[in-house]
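Hey, I'm writing a tutorial for new members on how sequence and structure tokens pair up, and I'd like a real worked example in the thread rather than a made-up one. If someone can provide the structure for the chain below, I'll link this post from the tutorial.
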Amino acid sequence: MKKIIKITLISLITLFTVNSFSQGNLQFKRARLESYTFSNIDPSSPRYDTLVVTAGTVLKITSASLITTDGHDFQDSYILTITINDHSVVNYNSRLTKTYAPIWLGAGTYLIKAARSFSNSSTIFSFSGIEFNVVP
């Protein structure tokens, strides 16, 4: 009898511990890897695109990166910023890239903005993330 109580108690403690480290009411839906190409960015005309997170889901952006598509490398006094709804995602400044991740986005449509300090060239912004279903 003591053995059954002991096994039950250990099982309950294990179940409680495993559930306390879960994502709460989030259920994995899919991994997302997306890229956006912004052409002819210059200081007077930033470029825009949209990111959609479908209803009933949330998106966790886990990493982001930038590359140029026109053969020009990033320069010393060069500033490039990617924002989503005016929140910085990636900043490049003087050969230092700063990524602000993770970033959680709820359901909705978000505005992605690419802005540069000078030069008229193109950039690809990529991010990877995990999309979750919100389980009631």
